[in-house]
Description:
Strands 1-7-4-5-3 form a five-stranded antiparallel sheet, covered by helices on one side. Strands 22, 24, 27, 30 and 31 form a five-stranded mixed sheet that branches. Strands 32-38-37-34-35 form a five-stranded mixed sheet, with no helix packed on it. Among the domains are: 2-79; 283-376, Immunoglobulins (Immunoglobulin-like); 393-472, Immunoglobulin-like; 487-567, Immunoglobulin-like (Sandwich); 581-662, Immunoglobulins (Immunoglobulin-like); 677-759, Immunoglobulins (Immunoglobulin-like); 768-816, no CATH class. The longest helix is centred in the C-terminal third of the chain and has 14 residues, at 781-794. It contains two helices and 59 strands. By secondary structure, it is mainly beta. It is found in: Cell membrane. This is EGF-like domain-containing protein.
Amino acid sequence: IHKNSIPKGGASAGVYTKDKDSTNQWLCIISCCQDSSVCDSAFFHKNTCYLIKCNLTYPGGCDAVTKNSAKYNDSYYINVRDVVYQQCDLLNNNGCIEGEECRYSSEDGAPRCVCKSGYIQDQLGNCVALADPALADPVSSTGECEYPLDNTCHQNEECYLPPHTHSRVGTCRCKAGYHRDGTNTCVASDSLGKNNNTTTTPFPPTTKAAVDGSVVVCEYGLDSCGEHQECYLPKNSLKRSGICVCVEGYVMGTDNQCILNASTTPVPKTTTPEVIQTTPKVTKLSVSAGNTVELQLPKDETVLTCFVLEKENPGEKFQYEWSLITSPEGAEIGKMVGKNTDKLTISNLIAGLYTFKIEVTGVNRVGEAYVNVTVLPPARQNSPPVAVINPKEQVVKLPNSAILDGSDSSDDDKIVKYLWEEMSGPLQDHTLQDDRNMLTLKDLVPGYYVFKLTVTDSDGATNSTVANVTVIKETDYPPKADAGSDVVIHLPQDSVILYGNSSTDDKGIKSYEWIKSAEDKLTADMTGTTSPYLHLSKLQVGDYTFTLKVTDTTDQVSTATVHLFVKPDVNTPPVAVTAGQLTKIIPLKGLVLDGRNSTDDKKIDSYSWVQTGGTPTLKILNSDTALATAVGDITPGEYKFTLTVADQEKLKSSQDLTIVVKELPNKAPVSNAGGDRIVTLPVILVEIDGSKSMDDKKIVRYSWERDDKSLAAGDVLNGSDHGAVLQLVNLVAGKYIFRLTVFDAEGLSSSDTANLHVKEDPHKKDLLELTLDTNLEEFTVEDKENLRSQLSSMLPKSQNGDVSAEIQTLHKSPSSL
């Protein structure tokens, strides 16, 4: 997918078909994939899908070409199918469709299908008859251009912009002295197309010369062909362009030279009998139709004059024939007078581009020229602008601002200037004036204003209108003082703060003032008397009255009064607070006694906890604090405690706390013998762990017993068969079964079984028993290591590694006991 791209051949790339149902590039691609008969490439441009059937005679015409112009930013070009290009047949027109004929290209000299004479290519690539007015003066493949930047136009084209237009987008047209040929290319109007044996001048597709794909074009009566060749022109042809063919009796050789036919029978030449064998030489006349003519409606008439550089020979009379080549749509009402004279009068013209051709014929002399006539639309008749202000009337209450909108003012072309003026209003230090389409009114003083808007259009015409604005002074409400609620305090507290920060005003409070009533004979220290907060200290017993005075920004005043009552010191007894009654479940480490919720109007000075009921008597830890703990032999029953609190003046208060201790029903213990184990001899000590047995209270006894199916070998160490961990020594290989039974304090029990598998020593066959003639009580570790080293040195070497001796056990010989 090529973005910002178009087909290289433009409108000549092939036949374009619009697909109105494909609204994006993806649908355009799918549409092209579905119908190969009308589409080889998809082109999505300006939200329109074009299906392109490529011109197979235009090599590379369907290749993508990237464009830098902004107009192609959203263009996508996609080569959906591979295209095999081939040249068309110059002789029989093979490879071309209706309205086309095979000609040499002006770009690369190769044969290509282009529009035949009397046809022209529209912007969809179709060759249609010039009689169709919609196709007059075809533009380049891009069509539009930006004036004065004509870089989007093709060679010999210029960007045409109608006068008095306000747009910079024009169309590409041929420069003066050029006209469009059938390939939509601008060529010189006086050119006959001859250029090194290739030409852009079309020749009829009905010629019958086949010269192995290499054809030499000639102009009948002017050019001479090669040796043994003549210029062939089909009968009834209106063109003077033909092709060189071999004369009768000659055939075309491989080197494109006519050679004598070796056959004894003359070979007919390859042209039809209509070939004109001998013709007089025709010379070219230098003809001019003058410069490009431009006129503007309502003038719709002009005269075209033909000039011939050569003079008429004696007895010769030039024949003139004017013809219309292109014209704008609707030009059928135009008139031509003097079509067969050197001066052509044309009238009833409409806006657009006309192309006229003049052909001059003499005796064996001929020439032609083209001239363009551009008819511009009538100059625009200016209408003055219309000034509009919204709103025409409005009332503004300060401090709000206002806006006068003049953007709805209109003109038939364009408004280029706005001017706001204050026509009348209250006296103030500045004048309101602006040159934008909207006027913002701010910092106004109360009064009645009249504002005038004058608009000027592109032709200098003006128009004015006025708007009225009434500015009303803002209402200022007085402040509202708020000194807060009355206050009561008791000594020894002798200071307080009075709050006036709840006072309000719609514009803002400028000042605060606190005033002590003159009737108060009591004294006090006052600070912050000009702030919202009055700080009072060193107060005396009695009643005070204070007045708060607030003033707003316009000096409006409001007052409020607050009373302060200072009372003598009055002490109230404390209040002891406990949980009242609690229930606990044994086992317990202690009973928590909590009196932290006790209160006093000042401060609790002391706490005292005592046990007043229940057995046994418990010891109370931290009994002189709010949080105490009773510890001891806590058994099920009811315990009573009393909390007494006292303040600094020894006023007291007491409250009881009852704690009911309960015991849950006893559950049997759960025995856990530790699970099965496997050990391998030699092993000295084996332990079977039953310490994970559990009870809701406490296990008081363990009992390990052998099962009847267990081996009897092995000894129990340290009476461990009555402990949590059973210790065994002197075991032999085999299976042992032990049952663990556990008991709680109330005699409830449970049992669990553990299997012990003792495996034989895998090195039993390698064991030796040595009897040493020494006293075991004197045999040291050093002696043991020396004995091991001596035994290791006596062992034979092994290919699998080192061989060593290990001493497992040492014991006295039974014979020595």
